[in-house]
Amino acid sequence: MTVKHSHPLTEGDRVVFLVEEQSNPSTDYFLLPAISARSLNVVRCTFTDLPSAEQLDDALVVFVRYVPPAWARLIATLRPRLRGLVFFMDDDVLDVRASVGMPLRYRFKLARLAARYQKWLRRHDAELWVATLYLQQKYAHWHPRLVLPFPIQNSNDVCRVFYHGSASHGAEIRWLHPVMAEVLRRDERIHFEIIGGEEVYRLFRGLPRVTVVHPMKWPAYQAFLAMPGRHIGLVPLHDLPFNRARSYTKFLDITRCGAAGIYSPGSTSAEMVSHQCEGLVIPLEQKCWIEAIVRLAGDESLRRTLAANAGKKLPELAERAQNSCPVLLNTTKKI
């Protein structure tokens, strides 16, 4: 069997509407690089982002894995005005038999948003683009085009902000949500890492570039903290009775992983820091923290300076800890 492996896009295409459920690897590995290589104008749409009829004139519409009903109704009325219609899949989503053994909820989704539209796609003269030779051969009667994945280059211009508060820091976690929502909106280079369970995941899952790490035992956390790639550590602390008893271990954690810290005043961690020397001490006001995080994320030189100065304090703190060790009494009884 002859394999078609030509690039499916041409310079003549004007606007490409990518219809996707959300940001996903299918788009990023296959479709966006292919479109970018041709310098085409791409518009990414979710299931509910419906363009006007005028916007679709002479446009190419690409469904990424799924056909949302609202889009199907729109295309059915405007198909003659389109330059082309495409369905792309990198799994066998058009055959419900292929998903036997998978969770029923997922199988129902494939049936509802993909398999049921196979005849509809053929009726509206849609092209089929596939990601593997297996799919190309299975659907050979449709004459599909093979689109291979592009390597994704890691960006060096990334700033990872983290907050590793435990479940006892619920007030701080909730306080940070609007702060990080605005920070992430302002600067796409910033990623946020937070530790928490299901409640934290539900709180932050709507924000982009957030990693929610499941709580772990202390030995596992030690290994986790030693992993490189963190740049700004956050230590907001509300003036609560329980918080007043906390030590400055968060300063030690942030310094240990080579990051710069932002601390709220009044905490023992902030007492280890001279503002703009070993870290930033910022009033516990959300607007102030937004500005401080964005500013520090954009100033690599300052981050390095703060982290280096904080590191110089560690021998002093180690000596202080050594001197504070209690003298162990000899409690052995004489016989």
What does this structure look like?
By secondary structure, the chain is an alpha/beta fold. The chain has 2 domains: 15-146, Rossmann fold (3-Layer(aba) Sandwich), CATH 3.40.50; 159-315, 3-Layer(aba) Sandwich (Rossmann fold). It contains 14 helices and 12 strands. The strands form 2 sheets. Strands 2-1-3-4-5-6 form a 6-stranded parallel β-sheet. A 6-stranded parallel β-sheet has the order 9-8-7-10-11-12, with helices on both faces. α11 (268-271) links the parallel β11 (260-263) and β12. The longest helix has 17 residues, at 170-186. Mean pLDDT is 89; it is low at 1-7.
Bin the helical content: 25-40%
Q: Tell me, rounded to a whole number, the average pLDDT.
A: 89
- The H-and-E topology, N to C, reads as EHEHEHEHHEHEEHEHEHEHEHEHHH
Tell me the distance between the termini.
94 Å
Please work out how many helical segments DSSP would assign. Answer: 14
CATH class of the largest domain: Alpha Beta
Quaternary organization = single chain
